[in-house]
Amino acid sequence: MHHAQSIARLITELGKLPGVGPKTAQRLTYHLLNSPRENSLALSKAIREAVDKVTYCSVCSNFTDIDPCFICRDEKRDKSIICVVEEPGDIVAIEKTREYKGHYHVLQGIISPIDGIGPEQLKVKELLARITHQPKDNLEVIIALGSSVEGEATSMYLAKILRPLGIKVTRIAHGLPVGGALEYADEVTLAKAFEGRIELF
Amino acid sequence: MHHAQSIARLITELGKLPGVGPKTAQRLTYHLLNSPRENSLALSKAIREAVDKVTYCSVCSNFTDIDPCFICRDEKRDKSIICVVEEPGDIVAIEKTREYKGHYHVLQGIISPIDGIGPEQLKVKELLARITHQPKDNLEVIIALGSSVEGEATSMYLAKILRPLGIKVTRIAHGLPVGGALEYADEVTLAKAFEGRIELF
């Protein structure tokens, strides 16, 4: 025992964060103890408030502190496009492009039999439920999942259940990243880039 | 604005921690929101309790939640040796060796004119105060500071004010790290290793 009890406890709790080992946890603890009291308490309060207030949006399953979330409430967004993503962080990444003006749906995971995650563990029935409430002839579901085996399997699964409902299902392009040199691209990415080639006008 | 308010606030507060950039702050925030509620609240509570309870030991200036700290209270430790360190974390490192059984004194910094830190900003007068209360003929002060210019200057300063009081002042050895190969040692370390050579019996 090299620490006072409340210091040891803080090191333990910080050490539970992803990517924070014992040394980093100790460094962060000393930082919090050396910081002005109100700064450290602000972090404590922010955690408590986020945990108390944040819930899942009843429409898109994104994190929100007001239900429905600010994207689902936004009347200016296009209700006829729903972009399906794995996690809330993916929405942040897409929003930063400032290109997409449709709605989202967060699956909260992808199908992964090895981890025991099937469609029932994901927000798939919530996706189907919200779709039943809107006209399907003009609806497009864009699947924006990673190109891992699990991502591909989840995309296929969603396409299989959505297409019979008369919904247009697309998925984002996989290919050469912008600024990426051809010679350094891996073969799978390059194969996808050829497969997804488009005609020039 | 890509986040709900209380999520944005938590990302901001986590982003103030050293070594935590905006992306890591977002990842940690989502981790806390995805974790069981009681785990995240445990971190919030641990921060608040540490900030509320932890103070500086009135004897050695180490962080503690009971004054004097558990090391200064320990009757089994040798009161005739005081090891001077820069920060509380240094004590943890030395305690892990399980070799040192004396007391400590935390300077809470080192002399660094460029940062405006002189002896007055450090816990030097507290060191002198505790020394006046004990017999000086048998007392040893071990200076365990880094070998940076500031560390050396602080060591020299302490030796200069402690020696006239009849106190034995030593400093930890600088040299080749155990397991370190001679050919990869930098020249300053190697020079120190020669300077600090000891006779073999």
Automatic annotation (TrEMBL), chains A, B:
<feature type="domain" description="Toprim">
    <location>
        <begin position="80"/>
        <end position="177"/>
    </location>
</feature>
<dbReference type="GO" id="GO:0006281">
    <property type="term" value="P:DNA repair"/>
</dbReference>
<feature type="zinc finger region" description="C4-type">
    <location>
        <begin position="57"/>
        <end position="72"/>
    </location>
</feature>
<dbReference type="Pfam" id="PF21175">
    <property type="entry name" value="RecR_C"/>
</dbReference>
<dbReference type="GO" id="GO:0008270">
    <property type="term" value="F:zinc ion binding"/>
</dbReference>
<comment type="similarity">
    <text>Belongs to the RecR family.</text>
</comment>
<keyword id="KW-0227">DNA damage</keyword>
<keyword id="KW-0479">Metal-binding</keyword>
<dbReference type="GO" id="GO:0003677">
    <property type="term" value="F:DNA binding"/>
</dbReference>
<keyword id="KW-0863">Zinc-finger</keyword>
<comment type="function">
    <text>May play a role in DNA repair. It seems to be involved in an RecBC-independent recombinational process of DNA repair. It may act with RecF and RecO.</text>
</comment>
<keyword id="KW-0862">Zinc</keyword>
<dbReference type="Pfam" id="PF13662">
    <property type="entry name" value="Toprim_4"/>
</dbReference>
<dbReference type="InterPro" id="IPR000093">
    <property type="entry name" value="DNA_Rcmb_RecR"/>
</dbReference>
<protein>
    <recommendedName>
        <fullName>Recombination protein RecR</fullName>
    </recommendedName>
</protein>
<dbReference type="InterPro" id="IPR023627">
    <property type="entry name" value="Rcmb_RecR"/>
</dbReference>
<keyword id="KW-0234">DNA repair</keyword>
<dbReference type="Pfam" id="PF02132">
    <property type="entry name" value="RecR_ZnF"/>
</dbReference>
<dbReference type="InterPro" id="IPR006171">
    <property type="entry name" value="TOPRIM_dom"/>
</dbReference>
<dbReference type="GO" id="GO:0006310">
    <property type="term" value="P:DNA recombination"/>
</dbReference>
<dbReference type="InterPro" id="IPR034137">
    <property type="entry name" value="TOPRIM_RecR"/>
</dbReference>
<dbReference type="InterPro" id="IPR015967">
    <property type="entry name" value="Rcmb_RecR_Znf"/>
</dbReference>
<keyword id="KW-0233">DNA recombination</keyword>
<dbReference type="Pfam" id="PF21176">
    <property type="entry name" value="RecR_HhH"/>
</dbReference>
